[in-house]
Amino acid sequence: MATSDAPLEIGHVALTVRDLDAVAAFYQRALGLDPLSQDGEIVRLGTGDRTLLELRRDPAARVSSPREAGLFHTAFLLPARADLGRWLAHAAESGLRLQGASDHLVSEAVYLADPEGNGIEVYVDRPRAEWPMSAGGLQMASDPMDHAGVLAAAGGSRWAGIPEGSVVGHVHLQVGALDAAEGFYGETLGMALTVRYRGANFFGAGGYHHHVGTNIWNSRGAGRRAPGTAGLAEVVLRADPAELAAIAVRAGVVPDGPVALQDPWGTAITVEAK
Predict the structure, then answer these.
(1) Domains and CATH numbers, the chain
(2) CB 99 within 8 A of CB 85
(3) Cα dihedral sign for 237, 239, 241, 244?
(4) Could you tell me which residues the TPR repeats occupy (predicted)?
(5) HSE toward the beta carbon, residue 212, CA cutoff 13 A
(6) pLDDT tens-digit readout, 169-226
Protein backbone atom coordinates (compact mmCIF):
# COMPACT_ATOMS: atom_id res chain seq x y z
CA MET A 1 0.00 0.00 0.00
CA ALA A 2 1.05 3.60 -0.45
CA THR A 3 1.17 5.84 2.59
CA SER A 4 -1.12 8.20 0.66
CA ASP A 5 -3.88 5.56 0.98
CA ALA A 6 -4.03 6.41 4.69
CA PRO A 7 -6.21 9.24 6.06
CA LEU A 8 -3.13 10.63 7.83
CA GLU A 9 0.43 10.59 6.47
CA ILE A 10 3.75 12.38 6.80
CA GLY A 11 3.98 15.53 4.70
CA HIS A 12 7.52 16.67 5.43
CA VAL A 13 10.08 17.06 8.18
CA ALA A 14 11.79 20.31 9.18
CA LEU A 15 15.26 20.36 10.75
CA THR A 16 17.14 23.18 12.43
CA VAL A 17 20.73 23.05 11.15
CA ARG A 18 23.84 25.00 12.03
CA ASP A 19 25.48 24.80 8.59
CA LEU A 20 22.68 25.10 6.04
CA ASP A 21 24.88 24.92 2.95
CA ALA A 22 26.70 21.75 4.03
CA VAL A 23 23.58 19.92 5.14
CA ALA A 24 21.59 20.89 2.03
CA ALA A 25 24.45 19.77 -0.20
CA PHE A 26 24.60 16.44 1.63
CA TYR A 27 20.93 15.63 1.06
CA GLN A 28 21.25 16.55 -2.60
CA ARG A 29 24.39 14.45 -3.07
CA ALA A 30 23.54 11.51 -0.84
CA LEU A 31 19.80 11.11 -1.50
CA GLY A 32 19.38 13.02 -4.75
CA LEU A 33 16.78 15.39 -3.31
CA ASP A 34 16.04 18.34 -5.58
CA PRO A 35 16.22 21.93 -4.31
CA LEU A 36 12.67 23.24 -4.65
CA SER A 37 12.86 26.69 -3.06
CA GLN A 38 14.92 28.88 -0.77
CA ASP A 39 13.51 31.61 1.43
CA GLY A 40 16.39 33.42 3.10
CA GLU A 41 17.41 31.04 5.87
CA ILE A 42 15.18 28.12 4.77
CA VAL A 43 15.84 25.56 2.03
CA ARG A 44 13.16 23.12 0.87
CA LEU A 45 14.19 19.86 -0.78
CA GLY A 46 12.07 17.15 -2.36
CA THR A 47 11.00 15.56 -5.61
CA GLY A 48 8.61 16.86 -8.24
CA ASP A 49 6.65 19.59 -6.52
CA ARG A 50 6.52 17.85 -3.14
CA THR A 51 8.68 19.09 -0.28
CA LEU A 52 10.08 16.21 1.77
CA LEU A 53 12.63 18.07 3.89
CA GLU A 54 12.86 21.66 5.10
CA LEU A 55 16.16 22.92 6.48
CA ARG A 56 16.16 25.99 8.73
CA ARG A 57 19.46 27.77 9.36
CA ASP A 58 20.45 28.69 12.93
CA PRO A 59 24.24 28.90 13.35
CA ALA A 60 23.77 29.53 17.08
CA ALA A 61 21.63 26.44 17.69
CA ARG A 62 22.75 24.27 20.57
CA VAL A 63 23.95 20.81 19.55
CA SER A 64 21.50 18.26 20.94
CA SER A 65 22.48 15.34 23.11
CA PRO A 66 21.75 11.80 21.87
CA ARG A 67 19.88 11.27 25.15
CA GLU A 68 17.38 14.05 24.52
CA ALA A 69 13.95 13.67 23.01
CA GLY A 70 13.86 14.47 19.32
CA LEU A 71 14.63 12.81 16.02
CA PHE A 72 15.77 9.21 15.76
CA HIS A 73 15.48 9.24 11.97
CA THR A 74 13.57 10.59 9.00
CA ALA A 75 12.60 7.64 6.78
CA PHE A 76 12.52 8.20 3.02
CA LEU A 77 10.32 5.62 1.31
CA LEU A 78 11.30 4.71 -2.26
CA PRO A 79 8.70 3.32 -4.70
CA ALA A 80 10.36 -0.04 -5.49
CA ARG A 81 13.06 -2.48 -4.37
CA ALA A 82 14.98 -1.71 -7.56
CA ASP A 83 15.20 1.92 -6.40
CA LEU A 84 16.72 0.83 -3.10
CA GLY A 85 19.20 -1.34 -5.01
CA ARG A 86 20.21 1.59 -7.20
CA TRP A 87 20.59 3.84 -4.16
CA LEU A 88 22.63 1.23 -2.27
CA ALA A 89 25.07 0.98 -5.18
CA HIS A 90 25.23 4.79 -5.32
CA ALA A 91 25.97 4.92 -1.59
CA ALA A 92 28.88 2.50 -2.03
CA GLU A 93 30.28 4.38 -5.03
CA SER A 94 29.91 7.71 -3.22
CA GLY A 95 31.64 6.50 -0.08
CA LEU A 96 28.67 7.26 2.13
CA ARG A 97 29.16 6.02 5.67
CA LEU A 98 26.26 3.70 6.40
CA GLN A 99 25.28 2.82 9.96
CA GLY A 100 23.40 -0.41 9.28
CA ALA A 101 20.74 -2.20 7.31
CA SER A 102 17.78 -4.32 8.39
CA ASP A 103 15.00 -6.52 7.14
CA HIS A 104 11.97 -5.43 9.16
CA LEU A 105 9.69 -8.08 7.58
CA VAL A 106 7.36 -5.32 6.34
CA SER A 107 10.24 -3.39 4.75
CA GLU A 108 13.95 -3.36 3.92
CA ALA A 109 15.92 -0.41 5.26
CA VAL A 110 19.36 1.18 5.25
CA TYR A 111 20.54 3.70 7.86
CA LEU A 112 22.92 6.65 7.88
CA ALA A 113 23.16 10.18 9.29
CA ASP A 114 23.62 13.67 7.89
CA PRO A 115 26.67 15.84 8.76
CA GLU A 116 24.97 17.14 11.91
CA GLY A 117 23.96 13.71 13.18
CA ASN A 118 20.31 13.70 12.12
CA GLY A 119 19.34 10.09 11.49
CA ILE A 120 18.18 8.95 8.05
CA GLU A 121 16.49 5.76 6.89
CA VAL A 122 16.17 4.89 3.20
CA TYR A 123 13.69 2.06 2.73
CA VAL A 124 11.27 0.17 0.56
CA ASP A 125 8.09 -1.58 1.64
CA ARG A 126 7.23 -5.16 0.94
CA PRO A 127 3.78 -5.66 -0.61
CA ARG A 128 1.14 -5.41 2.10
CA ALA A 129 -0.03 -8.97 1.40
CA GLU A 130 3.41 -10.17 2.56
CA TRP A 131 3.39 -8.35 5.90
CA PRO A 132 3.48 -11.10 8.55
CA MET A 133 0.54 -11.28 10.91
CA SER A 134 -0.05 -13.35 14.02
CA ALA A 135 -2.73 -13.60 16.66
CA GLY A 136 -1.06 -10.62 18.32
CA GLY A 137 -1.19 -8.49 15.18
CA LEU A 138 1.43 -7.19 12.80
CA GLN A 139 4.95 -8.58 13.18
CA MET A 140 8.15 -6.56 12.71
CA ALA A 141 11.78 -7.47 13.39
CA SER A 142 15.33 -6.24 12.79
CA ASP A 143 16.85 -9.11 10.83
CA PRO A 144 19.88 -8.84 8.53
CA MET A 145 19.02 -7.34 5.15
CA ASP A 146 19.69 -9.29 1.95
CA HIS A 147 22.21 -6.84 0.48
CA ALA A 148 22.91 -9.01 -2.57
CA GLY A 149 19.22 -9.39 -3.33
CA VAL A 150 18.59 -5.66 -3.00
CA LEU A 151 21.51 -4.81 -5.29
CA ALA A 152 20.41 -7.44 -7.82
CA ALA A 153 16.91 -5.95 -7.93
CA ALA A 154 18.38 -2.89 -9.68
CA GLY A 155 19.30 -5.04 -12.67
CA GLY A 156 22.46 -3.04 -13.28
CA SER A 157 20.60 0.28 -13.70
CA ARG A 158 22.09 3.33 -12.01
CA TRP A 159 20.78 5.80 -9.47
CA ALA A 160 19.63 9.07 -11.04
CA GLY A 161 18.35 10.92 -8.00
CA ILE A 162 15.42 10.22 -5.75
CA PRO A 163 12.58 8.94 -7.96
CA GLU A 164 9.22 10.62 -8.41
CA GLY A 165 6.76 9.12 -5.95
CA SER A 166 9.24 8.97 -3.07
CA VAL A 167 7.84 10.26 0.23
CA VAL A 168 8.72 10.51 3.88
CA GLY A 169 7.11 7.23 4.82
CA HIS A 170 7.57 7.60 8.55
CA VAL A 171 9.35 9.54 11.26
CA HIS A 172 10.96 7.76 14.20
CA LEU A 173 11.27 9.80 17.39
CA GLN A 174 13.16 9.58 20.64
CA VAL A 175 10.76 10.20 23.52
CA GLY A 176 10.95 10.29 27.28
CA ALA A 177 8.21 7.75 28.00
CA LEU A 178 6.20 5.34 25.87
CA ASP A 179 2.90 5.81 27.70
CA ALA A 180 2.93 9.59 27.21
CA ALA A 181 3.82 9.08 23.54
CA GLU A 182 0.92 6.68 23.19
CA GLY A 183 -1.40 9.28 24.67
CA PHE A 184 -0.38 11.87 22.09
CA TYR A 185 0.27 9.88 18.91
CA GLY A 186 -2.32 7.21 19.61
CA GLU A 187 -5.13 9.14 21.28
CA THR A 188 -4.81 12.79 20.19
CA LEU A 189 -3.63 12.09 16.64
CA GLY A 190 -5.76 8.95 16.46
CA MET A 191 -3.14 6.60 15.01
CA ALA A 192 -3.43 2.89 15.70
CA LEU A 193 -0.71 1.31 17.81
CA THR A 194 0.43 -1.29 15.28
CA VAL A 195 3.46 -2.88 16.97
CA ARG A 196 4.91 -2.97 20.47
CA TYR A 197 8.64 -3.63 20.32
CA ARG A 198 11.39 -3.72 22.93
CA GLY A 199 11.49 -0.15 24.20
CA ALA A 200 9.50 1.18 21.25
CA ASN A 201 5.97 1.60 19.95
CA PHE A 202 4.87 2.10 16.35
CA PHE A 203 1.77 3.98 15.21
CA GLY A 204 0.09 3.96 11.81
CA ALA A 205 -3.03 5.24 10.09
CA GLY A 206 -5.18 3.46 7.54
CA GLY A 207 -3.51 0.09 8.01
CA TYR A 208 0.05 1.26 7.25
CA HIS A 209 2.71 -0.47 9.39
CA HIS A 210 3.78 2.85 10.90
CA HIS A 211 3.87 6.54 10.19
CA VAL A 212 5.44 7.34 13.57
CA GLY A 213 7.83 5.33 15.70
CA THR A 214 8.66 6.25 19.29
CA ASN A 215 11.47 4.79 21.38
CA ILE A 216 13.21 5.24 24.72
CA TRP A 217 16.40 3.35 23.79
CA ASN A 218 18.60 6.39 24.53
CA SER A 219 16.13 8.92 25.90
CA ARG A 220 14.21 7.28 28.76
CA GLY A 221 13.07 10.01 31.16
CA ALA A 222 13.94 12.87 28.81
CA GLY A 223 12.13 16.14 29.44
CA ARG A 224 11.03 18.85 27.05
CA ARG A 225 13.53 19.92 24.42
CA ALA A 226 15.22 23.24 25.10
CA PRO A 227 14.40 26.06 22.66
CA GLY A 228 17.15 26.86 20.19
CA THR A 229 18.33 23.27 19.84
CA ALA A 230 19.56 21.88 16.53
CA GLY A 231 17.81 18.86 15.08
CA LEU A 232 14.12 18.19 14.69
CA ALA A 233 12.12 21.42 14.38
CA GLU A 234 8.73 20.25 13.12
CA VAL A 235 6.86 17.30 11.64
CA VAL A 236 4.11 18.25 9.20
CA LEU A 237 1.33 15.68 8.73
CA ARG A 238 -1.21 15.66 5.91
CA ALA A 239 -4.76 14.55 6.75
CA ASP A 240 -8.03 13.97 4.97
CA PRO A 241 -10.47 16.79 5.88
CA ALA A 242 -12.57 14.56 8.14
CA GLU A 243 -9.47 13.28 9.91
CA LEU A 244 -8.15 16.82 10.35
CA ALA A 245 -11.45 17.91 11.91
CA ALA A 246 -11.42 14.92 14.26
CA ILE A 247 -7.87 15.65 15.39
CA ALA A 248 -8.81 19.28 16.08
CA VAL A 249 -11.74 18.15 18.23
CA ARG A 250 -9.59 15.69 20.20
CA ALA A 251 -6.92 18.37 20.67
CA GLY A 252 -9.51 20.94 21.80
CA VAL A 253 -8.73 23.50 19.09
CA VAL A 254 -10.90 25.23 16.52
CA PRO A 255 -10.75 23.30 13.22
CA ASP A 256 -10.40 26.31 10.92
CA GLY A 257 -7.10 25.48 9.22
CA PRO A 258 -3.86 23.64 10.00
CA VAL A 259 -3.75 22.30 13.55
CA ALA A 260 -0.55 23.27 15.38
CA LEU A 261 0.30 20.97 18.29
CA GLN A 262 3.26 19.97 20.43
CA ASP A 263 3.98 16.48 21.66
CA PRO A 264 4.84 16.02 25.37
CA TRP A 265 8.52 16.81 24.63
CA GLY A 266 7.89 20.07 22.82
CA THR A 267 8.24 18.79 19.26
CA ALA A 268 6.04 20.82 16.91
CA ILE A 269 3.50 18.64 15.09
CA THR A 270 1.42 20.45 12.47
CA VAL A 271 -1.50 18.74 10.77
CA GLU A 272 -2.68 20.24 7.50
CA ALA A 273 -5.29 19.21 4.94
CA LYS A 274 -4.27 17.00 2.02
Answers:
(1) 3-273 (3.10.180.10)
(2) no
(3) negative
(4) 4-37
(5) 30
(6) 999 999 999 999 999 999 999 999 999 999 999 999 999 999 999 999 999 999 999 9
